[in-house]
Recover the amino acids of this structure.
């Protein structure tokens, strides 16, 4: 009888450990709301990964510097896949009024407001010009000396 209790205790401990591991492996990415007042968001929506507009936007981002100093986080919503936050694609589309299958790029300020909305890829200089004109960014730049 004691062997069965010991075995049951060991199995229970193992199962609890497995549950903890599976929870740790799940999506723990913050939601869009959790970035409020901390990050600016560049949210790219595309119907699929083969979108020419998506490829152009990615190339623009890859070729630019200045994202980290502007506290800019890139989020991609490609079909039903989301990279960068834990929100679902449908929740993000609904929140920002984006129809499924369409290409759209949004710049969301730290206050959560949409600052730039385009159905075409946005060039880095336009993006940075918009951000650098924001009062909060001016304060940040003055504080950092950039």
């Amino acid at each position: 009888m004691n062997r069965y209790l010991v075995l049951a205790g060991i199995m229970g401990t193992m199962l609890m450990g497995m549950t903890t591991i599976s929870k740790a492996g799940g999506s723990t990415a913050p939601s869009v709301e959790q970035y409020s007042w901390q990050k600016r968001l560049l949210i790219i929506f595309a119907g699929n990964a083969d979108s020419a507009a998506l490829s152009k936007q990615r190339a623009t981002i890859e070729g630019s510097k200045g994202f980290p100093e502007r506290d800019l986080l890139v989020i991609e919503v490609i079909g039903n896949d989301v990279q960068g936050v834990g929100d679902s694609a449908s929740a993000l589309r609904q929140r920002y009024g984006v129809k499924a299958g369409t290409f759209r790029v949004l710049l969301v300020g730290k206050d959560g407001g949409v600052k730039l909305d385009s159905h075409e890829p946005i060039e880095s200089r336009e993006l940075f010009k918009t951000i650098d004109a924001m009062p909060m960014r001016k304060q940040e730049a003055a504080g950092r000396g950039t």
Summary: The two ends are 72 Å apart (CA to CA). The CA atoms of residues 66 and 128 lie 8 Å apart. The longest strand covers residues 40-46. Confidence is low (pLDDT under 50) at residues 2-26.
